[in-house]
Amino acid sequence: MRTEIATVLPISSPGTPRREGAPRARVRLEPTRRGRLLITAVAFVLGLLVAAAVLLSVDLPALAGTGGEQPVTVTVEAGDTLWGFAEQYAPEGVSAQEFITEVRVHNQLPTGRVTAGQEIQLPFLEDAAR
Question: Are residues 38 and 58 in the same domain?
Fold first, then answer.
């Protein structure tokens, strides 16, 4: 049977000086004024980033209550033209040409031609509502 010898270190009292290699007493760290300002600035910037991410991910027109101002989706039938849609759906004060240009931009149409069965959105023009 083999016996090993353990070394027992004496416990130092608070008044005795600390020896090399002995564990340190608990130290409470407090940030300086500059450190507190830095922490506050970092927290503020992070808050701005979170707010920006939320605003970019939320559909703002839906929150504004623009229920009646949504684009109208129309299925094109044989014989329909953008000029006909302009005469029927263009708000008062908006010319047919302006309305057709807006429809083409909104639907990313390369030309003014539409084909039967195609679905297009007719935008609500905010300038005409004023």
Answer: yes
CA–CA gap between residue 66 and residue 18 (Å, rounded)? 73
User: Residue 85: how many CB atoms within 10 A of its CB?
Assistant: 20
Q: In this structure, is residue 116 part of a structural domain?
A: yes
Distance CA 75, CA 71 (A): 13
Read off the pLDDT of residues 19-34 as tens digits, 9 standing for 90 and up: 666 666 777 888 899 9
Q: Is the residue at 42 inside a domain?
A: yes
The type of residue at 33 is R
Q: Which run of H or of E encompasses 119? A: strand 119-122
pTM check: above 0.90: no
* Number of domains observed in the structure of the chain: 2
> How are beta strands 119-122 and 72-75 bridged, if at all?
antiparallel
50-78 pLDDT, tens digit per residue, is 999 988 888 665 555 555 567 788 899 99
**Which backbone phi and psi does 56 adopt, to 5 degrees?**
-75, -25
Range of the domain at 41: 31-62
DSSP of 5-21? ----PPPPPTTSPPPTT
